[in-house]
Design goal:
Layout lengths: L2 E5 L9 H18 L3 E6 L19 H12 L4 E4 L10 H6 L2 E3 L3 E5 L2 E5 L10 H10 L2 H7 L4 H22 L15 H10 L6 E4 L6 E6 L2 E5 L8 E6 L2 E6 L9
Parallel strand pairs: 1-2, 2-3, 3-4, 6-7, 7-9
Antiparallel strand pairs: 1-10, 5-6, 8-9, 10-11
Length: 258
């Protein structure tokens, strides 16, 4: 049987067009390699560092990547894309143009007899109050309507400036690297949230992105927390087969918390 593939946090557009283009080429190479053995593809949020669709205008660029996703769909491989905290403002463009399915809320899927709980990972539970506030603010339909009247150049200038601002704050906290550290099973917001969910219902795998820390941890007997990491530094992804789920690094190296 063919496998199910998961990746997240490509952050296309960051930090420069040149570096983003190199990352896009690497992702396309990976997609070409997995396509023959892929039954379904999940891109679990923050595919783009900023995304906003006007009624008649969509972001420039990413044509090769989007064409590759369209190729998957045309070949009968479903493509699922989650809204992340950086690209929550999808409209229906990707659905109309390439046939992708867009998700906002967590979804549950079952493959090979395993139950999966899937979401980008932002604004889940009550642990990250700052992110919960930002998500409620930016996902407000009135705000989105008003933002649609902002000229495109100003809108994208704001979106990219906001992204750079957040990363500068992170760099000040850890000047030697911009990657966050794994805080431990007793402090990671998404691990704590997954444990809360487990009190109500069992899942074999919780699949998240958002944290940029690739991880594959058992958090309860038979239940694993899987974080997909990112493609800015790690280039990590997960593959689910009849033998279970495995988190891998496309560039190689030991970058996965186990």
């Amino acid at each position: 049987m063919k496998n199910i593939y998961f990746a997240s946090d490509f952050h296309f557009g960051f930090p420069t067009e040149e570096e983003s283009a190199e990352r896009e080429a690497l992702v396309i190479k990976w997609l070409d390699e997995i396509k023959p053995n892929c039954a379904e593809l999940f891109l679990v949020g923050d595919v783009f560092d900023f995304w906003f669709e006007y009624k008649y205008v969509a972001p420039q660029g990413y044509i090769r990547f989007l064409s590759k996703l369209a190729e998957f769909v045309e070949s009968g491989i479903p493509v699922n894309i989650f809204r992340g905290n950086h690209d929550m403002w999808y409209g229906d463009y990707l659905t109309r143009e390439i046939g992708a399915t867009i998700y906002m809320e967590p979804i549950v899927r079952e493959y090979f007899g395993k139950k999966l709980y899937i979401h980008h990972g932002h604004a889940l539970g009550s642990y990250d109050k700052g992110m919960n506030f930002l998500n409620a603010f930016f996902s407000n339909s009135v705000l989105q309507f008003l933002f649609s009247f902002v000229p495109t150049n100003w809108a994208y200038g704001f979106g990219r400036a906001w992204s750079r601002h957040n990363r500068k704050k992170r760099a000040k906290r850890a000047p030697e690297k911009q990657l966050p550290d794994y805080c431990g099973d007793d402090k990671e917001y998404l691990v704590l949230y997954a444990k809360d969910v487990l009190t109500e219902k069992f899942y074999d795998y919780f699949v998240f992105g958002h944290r940029h820390v690739a991880a594959d941890r058992e958090i309860a007997p038979g239940s694993r927390y899987v974080n997909l990491g990112n493609w800015i530094w790690n280039s990590t992804y997960a593959v689910l087969s009849e033998n279970g789920m495995e988190v891998k690094s496309y560039k190689g190296g030991d970058t996965i918390i186990r």
